[in-house]
Amino acid sequence: MITLHDLNPHLLQAQYAVRGPIVQRAQELEVQGRKIIYCNIGNPQALKQKPLSYLRQALSLLENPSLLDHPAVLKEYPEDIVSRVREILRCHPHGTGAYTQSPGIPFIRQAVAEFITRRDGVPADKEHIILTDGASKGVQAVLLALLKNPNDGVMIPIPQYPLYSATLALHGGRQVGYFLDEQNRWQLNEQILTQSLEKATAKGTHPVALVVINPGNPTGAVLSRDNVEMIVRFARTHSLSIIADEVYQENVYDRTARFHSFTRVMGEGGVRDVSLFTLHSVSKGFLGECGHRGGYLEMRNIPDDVLGQFIKLQSISLCANVSGQMATYFMVAPPKPGDASYETYVRERDAILAALKRKAEILGNGVNAIKGMSVDIPQGAMYAFVRFELPPEPGVNTAAMSAEERENYEARRDSAYCLALLEETGICVVPGSGFGQKAGTFHFRTTFLPPQDEIESLVQRLKTFHEQYVHALGKA
User: Domains in the chain, please, with CATH?
Assistant: First the structure.
């Protein structure tokens, strides 16, 4: 029988905090009959967000095309959806049960290219688009391809989404963390980027790429145009590829903020010597179709022979799942004004985004009213990275610890806090140490996806818990 000692050490090193021990404990408590408010992961439909009628109606006909032969059944479907499904099946007669071309169904890749062109005013080429099982598979493919040597590293934001650190660990790459500027609404800071790169280089690491998550996970920040332009200049100066995680591009709530894609900024700036990999997904935005695992990877400023290697890599998995490819199509090619399904689509879309905006404000304002807690009200995405204060433990001198010892010590403290929060209140969040944070600070990431009444309850419970927890530590 194999043991842990027989497993790949890269697997043992990989960590994925959003489904870690605290979530496992939450599931145990739920089995015991406890009411749990899951705020640990961006899984909208698991938290009562309804799917869009348009997408589900279309998918139902694609999965069961025999319904198209029953006029009485079709009366329940908007006319434009029926005609669109018939056209899809004409273009792709194999339906959803057969393998597709490895990079994806051609007409869907073309629709993605047209979506990017409409969004950015910059031409896109379907041949440089691969349909993926969610954005995560695109991330994994790019990191695998770019990590050539054992000393190659990738610059990732701190705090970050742990997909990046876990994938780097799995592939034996080096993590080059750069701190986001918490004092400046989590924007990127060129001086911090430069310091991080120089420190890594001095230790023998060769950075090959820079990851940017915009809008941010876990911070909820939306990058300014100036910030994106600075990042492009930095990547160009240091010969870095850019991996732009843009899965939350529809989730912008602050009226003073706007999503600026790297495609648009680089296209308008005439930048053709920086390789760009952009990712999008049906899991986020207002669709929330996490279970369908659909998304795309677009590649710019790469030669044809490199493109061929990415397509070869995708072919090893044969192709992305076909229902996810179809969901991606409906994301990038929604109903148009005049279509029978258009008004319902707009009403449902706007209701979801308006509710997310309200809940972000309720959470942000509520947290900032709690003594010892603070948060930037999320400008976008689905998360808030809440900062909280804990009194020092008697007899503990963190200044005498090594950097690793202090990181482990503080990780134990914020994990203990989040576990106690779960046990006392049923609120399941993720410790900030799972995403990375500056020494001497404590955070946790929470979503604001649950229904509004649960968010309101969460804020009240959080206030009571934090006050009692800090009081108890002070008496210890």
Answer: 4-49+346-475 (3.90.1150.10), 106-332 (3.40.640.10)
